[in-house]
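Consider the tokenized backbone below.
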């Protein structure tokens, strides 16, 4: 008799739970979003360029949202620790994160944190790159460089960061197009690359335009080609890889704000609206430009279209370079 009575009240209780649970993500409750602090996962070290870039814009976005956004650095695995956390986070809008180009490299290497498992709130910067030589170099054009490498296979040194990384992959696009074999020399970062280039310890370098810009403007360094898919406003005479037939999509790094797939649409809309207002804020624009960030705004659809073209290039590069698993 006791079992029967228990069943009589337990069954309705279970039914009521099943009915209530879906309400958690109902439009009515989502309309109150946000009601607490939002966590922002950052894959890079505190004080790095990307860390400072995301911290800068979330300060403006949290004013629009009316709640704090707490930056949390989750460093390791070339960003993989952070992005695995992000794709697995509860899709309630209280976990957002910074995503950069490296998620594509990690995915090719077998990471479960895949770029298309995220919803991109917006892209807010990009990082064009170029191939540089010292002003005293005999290479005046990219064709001069190609001929020089062909005449000295394996001897022309090119400063880059980690082998198989973004900068090395960019150089490989030129190697494949022109059938050349330079000698890539890895350094710890773009600052060290710049030092080596200015000291004429390497024949050429691949680095971000931001880092090299002051030296290109005064004529100490010369940019031979940019890896973008358009001529850069500050370097209108420098050809880009798309017009040279090197690639059909720009090859550059980028920074985006993303959330896990499954975040309710109206929360997506609130985040997108807040970050767009933050991006358009004249104070943010001035501060970002003063900090030498190359601003570029894309919404989710535009980002996905770009990444669907960029990812196959990364995959092919790493496979041919011998770095893909």
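A designed sequence for it:
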């Amino acid at each position: 008799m006791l079992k029967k009575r228990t069943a009589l009240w337990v069954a309705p209780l279970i039914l009521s739970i099943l009915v209530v649970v879906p309400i958690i993500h109902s439009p009515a409750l989502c309309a109150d979003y946000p009601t607490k602090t939002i966590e922002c996962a950052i894959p890079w070290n505190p004080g790095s360029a990307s860390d400072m870039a995301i911290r800068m814009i979330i300060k403006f976005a949290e004013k629009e949202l009316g709640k704090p956004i707490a930056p949390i650095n989750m460093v390791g695995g070339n960003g993989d620790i952070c992005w695995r956390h992000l794709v697995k986070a509860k899709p309630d809008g209280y976990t957002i994160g910074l995503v950069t180009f490296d998620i594509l490299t990690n995915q090719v290497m077998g990471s479960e944190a895949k770029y298309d498992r995220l919803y991109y709130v917006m892209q807010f910067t990009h990082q064009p790159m170029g191939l540089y030589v010292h002003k005293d170099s005999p290479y005046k054009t990219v064709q001069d460089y190609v001929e020089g490498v062909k005449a000295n296979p394996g001897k022309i040194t090119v400063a880059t960061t980690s082998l198989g990384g973004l900068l090395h992959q960019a150089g490989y696009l030129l190697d494949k197009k022109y059938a050349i074999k330079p000698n890539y020399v890895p350094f710890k970062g773009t600052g060290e690359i710049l030092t080596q280039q200015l000291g004429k310890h390497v024949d050429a370098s691949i680095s971000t335009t931001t880092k090299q810009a002051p030296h290109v403007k005064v004529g100490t360094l010369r940019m031979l080609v940019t890896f973008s898919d358009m001529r850069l406003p500050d370097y209108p005479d420098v050809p880009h890889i798309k017009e040279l037939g090197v690639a059909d999509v720009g090859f550059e790094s980028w920074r985006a704000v993303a959330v896990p797939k499954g975040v309710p649409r109206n929360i997506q809309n609130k985040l997108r609206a807040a970050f767009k207002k933050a991006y358009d804020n004249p104070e943010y624009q001035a501060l970002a430009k003063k900090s030498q960030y190359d601003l570029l705004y894309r919404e989710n659809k535009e980002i996905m279209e770009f990444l669907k073209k960029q990812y196959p290039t990364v995959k092919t590069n790493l496979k041919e370079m011998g770095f893909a698993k």
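Residues 1-24 have pLDDT under 50 and may be disordered.
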